[in-house]
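A quick aside before the break. I want you to see a complete sequence-to-structure record at least once, exactly as it would be stored in a machine-readable document. Don't worry about memorizing anything.
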Amino acid sequence: MKRYISVLLFSFLLTPALAQEPEGQDGVIVLSSDNGARVTIQPDSKYERGFSISLAGYEIGFAGSDSETEFHLPRVNGDKKKRKTYKGRLGVVDFGFNEFTSASYRGYQEDEHGFLDLRNGKSIYFAVNPFRTAAPITRDGTLGFTTGLGLVWRNYSFDNPITLRRHNGRIYPEPLDAAGLKKSKLTTFSIEVPVMLDVNFGRFFVSGGVYGGLVVGSHTKYKKPKTKSSTGTSVQMFEYGVTARAGFRCLYVFGNYGLNNVFKSGTAPSVSTATVGFGFPF
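That is the input. The structure line, written in C-alpha cells, reads:
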C-alpha cells in the first residue's frame, strides 16, 4: 500500500491538477489534468506483485517483494547491447618455416661460403602465445592494438652435411659423413613480445608492427648418432624485427623479418631470419 501511495504522490508532483478518472478494466487507473496530460497506472504481469506507469511514452515498472522494491529505469529505444570485447589479432599457436637472409661470408674462405644454407621444409618455426592482450583504438573497432608474450622455437636445418663448431671464438662448419645422417640443425629458444596495429574490415583484418625478444637458449644437434652441443656464446642474446599478418578472425598468415644478426658480430657469417607461416586461435 505504501508503494501505491508513493507512486500517486510522484505523479501529482510531475503533473499538477490531476483528476482521477474511473478505474478501468483490470485495475487500470488513469489520472488526467485540464491541459490534457495523462498518467496511466496499471498492473504489470511481468513483475511479481508489481505494476507499471506509462508517462509521456515512457514506462516505469515497480516490482514488489516481501523484502525489497525494484525500480526499473525507463526504456528508451530498446535495451543497449553490450559492447563486444576486443580480442586482438594474435593466435595461441604460430607455425611456420625459417630462412636465413642477407648472408655475408666476409672473412671466410671461398669453399666455406654457403655452409649456413637451410632446408626450408625442415627449418620449423613454432610459437606459443599464452599471454595476450588487446584494446580497440576506435569505438567501432576498426583500429585496434594487440600485444602479448610468446615462447618461440626456431629450428635451422642445414642443407649441407655439416654441424657448427667454435674455434678461436669463431663459428666454422664441421663436415659430417652424409651416409646415414638424418638431420643437422641449430635451434634457438626465445621469449618475444609483439606490438601490432590492427586494421579490421569486419571479420577480416591486416596487422603490422614490431617484435623484440630475448634468446635464452641455443644448441646444435645432429642425428648420427644423436649428438647435441651448445653454441649459446655465439648467438645474439637480443633479437628484434618487423611482423605482418592478414586473415580472418584469429586465423591468419604471417611473416616475420629479423633486423638483427643471428650471431654475434665477428663470430659467424652475418645472417638474419625471415619466417612465413600460419596462426591459429587454439
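Two observations worth writing down. The two ends are 58 Å apart (CA to CA). The longest strand covers residues 204-223. We'll return to this after the break.
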